[in-house]
Design goal:
Layout: H1 3-6, H2 10-54, H3 61-69, H4 73-83
Helix pairs in contact: 2-4
Amino acid sequence: MPIQYFWRHPLAEEVREEGRKEGRKEGRKEGREAGREAGRVEVFAEAVLRILRVRGIDVPDAVRARVEACHDLDQLIRWSERAVHAARADDLFALD
């Protein structure tokens, strides 16, 4: 069967539809994973600021902006650990 007729064949349409379904499924999975990652980032950013606040440490706008702008989960985890022992908000960034 010549190639130009193959793409009009009902079986070819079925194959294309399966590919589209698989692509949508993978896209939804990637979207869910990205959403979960973004949620974890947001939670850790809030945790860093909350730890400082609960400890009575003043958080300047520049520190708050830097923490809220960070999208690196590993970095936020390190900052949350440092916030537990920090004397000042700037101590979060001392080793960076």
